[in-house]
Amino acid sequence: MNAAVGHDQRVPPRSGVGFELQRGQSLTVIDPEGCQVADLLAFARGDVREVISNGRTFDYEETLRLTTGHRLWSNRSRVLLTIEDDTVGCHDFLLTPCSKATFRHFYPDKPVHRGCFGNLADALSPWGIAEDDIPVAFNCFMNVPVANDGSIAVLPPPGKPGDRIVFWAEVDLVIGLTACSAYASNGGTFKPIDYRID
Amino acid sequence: MNAAVGHDQRVPPRSGVGFELQRGQSLTVIDPEGCQVADLLAFARGDVREVISNGRTFDYEETLRLTTGHRLWSNRSRVLLTIEDDTVGCHDFLLTPCSKATFRHFYPDKPVHRGCFGNLADALSPWGIAEDDIPVAFNCFMNVPVANDGSIAVLPPPGKPGDRIVFWAEVDLVIGLTACSAYASNGGTFKPIDYRID
């Protein structure tokens, strides 16, 4: 049994984990210190070519601002996760996981990090999921306002210590989850993420 | 040589085409009658696992409203296409291609159509591209305003007869292009799309 069933588990700063979530289980993602983003991916365990899709989700949910009651849809038009509870109401599904390439682009003076993209690829490799299989993640607690002219910004996340979002698994899933590694996304410092399965 | 080199070619209503575009060539997508959307996909010809990515593009271009001078980036953080000219300035990169599933969801009283998703999969199959390889397309001329609360709408496209958008190929590409099949996206009627390569 996954050690996270009934117990909080910690994702250390700038790292990621992969695990299975069964249909009917809930996954709680917690921001234990506040102001920290967690990138979440969900693949169908039966065929990992099926994965959450921002475009299908925006289309069916008719909004970019996803919170309690909204569903995360797959590229095959199936609901993989439903958001059961959400104490923040601020998440992003527009932007791809940070990566070596995004570090070089946005932070040319900082050390290059493999970012959430590298952390997810590494954590998901036991299920045969490779870099090219990684789409836009659901970025829990990420603050990406869209201005009236369509321009976007990455601002510090508004989460307070203990804030959480809870997902209900509609099918058996493989989950990838990170404590995000990018400077702007996390207000300049890197904190852990906690999660539990119930 | 592709018959579209130097000559307008027509994509009939509710259909799609696939073709190769060489580095340094430009692709002009034309709305010949006005009020019609064209879904565009671009894959790297050398390895079709590399494809345009809305998330990478939003991240690097820092806007949802892409027009002249903006670039379409791949999942591998490479520029595949640059927008050279654009007489409309209204396009969408949020929503996935219409499909049998979206017809059943949004138009339960209408005949089910395979939509741009089916048309793209069929047109791109000679290059080994399958349904699961189809991400969010760049939807030329599509009108998807984002409200302040994040909600989105699909409104009639504002294109007038002869409006166009021109893309410059930064690498050798495989292109998928449709005349979109969904009611709301095209103001309720289905018109052709023209294109040419120069």
From TrEMBL, chains A, B:
Domain spans labelled DUF1989: 10-174
Organism field: Croceicoccus ponticola
InterPro entries according to UniProt: DUF1989
Organism domain of life: Bacteria
Pfam families assigned: DUF1989
Protein name, as recorded: Urea carboxylase-associated family protein
